[in-house]
Write a structure and sequence with these properties.
The complex is a heterodimer of chains A (about 300) and B (about 260). In chain A, strand 8 and strand 9 (about 205-210) form a beta hairpin. Chain A has a 6-stranded mixed beta sheet, with helices on both faces. Chain A has a 4-stranded antiparallel beta sheet with strand order 11-12-10-13, with helices on one face. In chain A, strands 2-1-4 form a 3-stranded antiparallel beta sheet, with helices on one face. Chain A has 11 helices and 13 strands. Chain A has helices at about 40-45, 90-100, 105-115, 130-140, 160-175, 185-195, 210-220, 230-240, 260-270, 285-290, 295-305, and strands spanning about 1-10, 15-25, 30-35, 55-60, 75-80, 150, 180-185, 195-200, 205-210, 220-225, 245, 250-255, 275-280. Chain A has 2 domains: about 1-215, P-loop containing nucleotide triphosphate hydrolases (Rossmann fold); about 220-280, Alpha-Beta Plaits (2-Layer Sandwich). Chain A has about 300 residues and is α/β, with parallel strands linked by helices. Chain B has one domain (about 20-260). Helices cover about 75% and strands about 0% of the residues of chain B. Chain B has 12 helices and no strands. Chain B has helices spanning about 20-30, 35-55, 65-70, 75-95, 95-105, 110-140, 150-175, 180-195, 205-210, 215-220, 230, 235-260. The chains are: A alpha/beta (about 300), B mainly alpha (about 260). At the A-B interface, helix 2, helix 3 and helix 5 of A face helix 1, helix 4 and helix 5 of B.
Chain lengths: ~300, ~260
């Protein structure tokens, strides 16, 4: 459980995080979304006590991070792959962290094995690829068998296999009742991995909802239409008040008429239809619209509620 | 992959990560960074090399002591100890691993205390061994009876302590400055500038120059360079206390800055 209450961070005159209040619950994967500069990383640093909040509080497992008796056993964090001195080996890095929180040494071999780094454990970290660096960061996060996991852009630099691996891993960690909180700019990835979303823009909370509700509340339904006689069908649909835009994949995106109405219309006029697909905007599209102007989104959100 | 985090090794709860754990972490981190290890090795080797050099070339003045001659290069070695102290923390800022360290040990005063304990122990033991060896080498190689012997005991313990003081000064400066190059420049400046700039202060020279750990070291080695006019008339031990006090005075704001600043 991570609880932020009116969390605020100002750097000079700039407000990076603005009265954020949210709760990240155990047993599910919670995605943390926001465009670059929205304050995601700052928020995560505040959670870990690396930066001090200007106002407000944030607790992990019921305590401020600095008050956790052995923090790595409660919270595992991956902030960036660059949290290791390049001259150190993966094994040395993890052994040091284990020593700092009285985690048994055997655990080091276990997390190396778990992240597939056993073979390269004796190599200096500066020779690691971005993907290997991420795996090492995840190994460090899992070292203390923590109940809370906080991961900043964990799929960054991972190949397809690695992305699939981490998706499975995060879901199973959540299924074990752990709290999993991850930030990502890859919306498509969030759609596949996260159960719940916390969305911020310009440091403010924009949404705190399930992935499904988020898409349903924010994406308008439309119908994809493809026809060999596009001109006539288009005129007919427009005559019934539909808004029609060309779709990037070919065919049209029709708003204002449902698939049944379009199908009937085509039949009544003897027009062939090759494709007729009801669709929702993907999370990616919703998010792009949202992040273009978070203030505009805000008013839209309030109207929906 | 059904249970990816399967934990064959049970982790007992209700344990607290305190200073001993932070110290163990610091020791592992120290050993795994080459630049730190080699600078530390150099700190230990330089005094012995200096003793051999002086004895072979016979570059002593008639009023020099065997102890002073044996420890000719100890000032250089002390500078290196200060550099180790600075790098011990600036290296972490440079690599970004300071955030990993603070995540593991969020009580930052504990982190600083662990670093200080490691530095003190390491530099004291190494400097004691190295400077004792340097004295013995000088003693063995220099002709008997030509030079006054000097009093190696208890002076050598003080010499070793002055290394620890210099290393802690480096740590304090490194904590405040955070950048390796800046911190190394600053701490070398702090060690050398008092004696370089001292003459500008006229009669106050001995007060200015006496503030540097190098002054305490020179007095302890009983070298002929350490005249009361240049480094002050304080005895070697009060001088050591003075520089230790100055270092402590700098460690306090360093600890406060470490706690206050965002990582």
């Amino acid at each position: 459980m991570i609880e932020a209450r009116d969390l605020t961070k100002r750097y000079g005159g700039r407000t990076a995080v603005d009265r954020l209040t949210f709760t990240v619950r155990p047993g599910r994967v919670t995605g943390f979304l926001g465009p670059n500069g929205a304050g995601k990383s700052t928020t995560l640093r505040l959670v870990l006590g690396l930066d001090a909040p200007t106002a407000g509080t944030v607790t992990v497992a019921g305590r401020r991070y600095a008050e956790l008796p052995a923090p790595l056993r409660t919270v595992g964090a991956l902030l960036d792959a660059k949290g290791v001195h390049g001259g150190r080996t993966a094994h040395q890095h993890l052994t040091g962290l284990a020593a700092s929180n009285r985690i048994p040494r055997r655990r080091v071999a276990e997390v190396l094995d778990l992240t597939g780094l056993t073979e390269v454990a004796g190599r200096r970290v500066k020779g690691f690829s971005l993907g290997m660096g991420q795996r090492l960061g995840i190994a460090a996060a899992l070292l203390g068998d923590p109940e809370v996991l906080i991961l900043d852009e964990p799929v960054n630099g991972l190949d397809t296999e690695g992305v699939r691996w981490i998706r499975t891993l995060l879901k199973s960690l959540a299924a074990q009742g752990r709290t999993v909180f991850l930030s990502s700019h890859l919306m498509s990835e969030m759609e596949l991995t996260a159960d719940h979303l916390i969305v911020i823009g310009r440091g403010r909370l924009l949404a705190d909802t399930s992935v499904r509700d988020f898409i349903e509340a924010n994406s308008r339904a439309h119908v994809l239409v493809r026809s060999p006689e596009p001109g006539r069908l288009r005129d007919l649909m427009e005559a019934r008040g539909a808004t029609i835009r060309p779709d990037a994949r070919g065919g049209w995106r029709v708003d204002g008429l449902d698939a049944a109405a379009i199908g009937d219309l085509a039949r009544d006029h003897g027009l062939a239809v090759h494709e007729l697909a009801p669709a929702h905007s993907s999370l990616e599209e919703v998010y792009t619209t949202l992040s273009r102007d978070s203030t505009e989104y805000r008013t839209q959100q309030e109207a929906v509620r | 992959m059904t249970t990816p985090i399967a934990t064959p090794t049970p982790i007992p709860m209700q344990t607290r990560a305190g200073l001993p754990q932070a110290l163990a972490h610091e020791w592992i981190k120290f050993r795994s960074v080459r630049s730190l290890v080699w600078t530390t090795v150099a700190t230990a080797v330089v005094p012995v090399l200096g003793a051999v050099f002086v004895a072979v070339t016979g570059s002593l003045r008639p009023d020099d002591t065997v102890l002073g001659a044996g420890l000719t290069l100890s000032v250089i070695a002390q500078l290196l100890a200060a550099v180790v102290g600075a790098l011990l923390i600036t290296g972490e800022y440079g690599s970004g691993s300071i955030r990993t360290t603070f995540a593991a040990t969020p009580r930052r005063a504990t982190v600083l205390a662990a670093k200080a304990t490691l530095l003190t122990g390491l530099t004291y033991v190494l400097a004691l061994a190295s400077c004792t060896l340097a004295y013995l080498v000088g003693d063995a190689m220099l002709e008997d009876g030509t030079y006054a012997q000097g009093e190696p005991l208890p002076a050598l313990f003080g010499v070793a302590a002055s290394f620890a003081v210099a290393a802690l000064l480096g740590l304090a400066v490194g904590t405040l400055v955070r950048h390796s190059a800046g911190a190394v420049t600053a701490v070398i400046g702090l060690l050398l500038l008092p004696s370089l700039l001292g003459p500008l202060f006229g009669d106050a020279q001995r007060w200015v120059a006496g503030l540097s750990p190098t002054a305490a070291l020179q007095k302890l080695t009983q070298t002929s360079d350490a005249t009361p006019e240049t480094v002050g008339s304080l005895g070697p031990w009060p001088s050591l206390l003075l520089v230790a006090g100055c270092t402590t005075a700098l460690l306090v704001p360093a600890a406060m800055a470490l706690r206050r600043r965002d990582a």
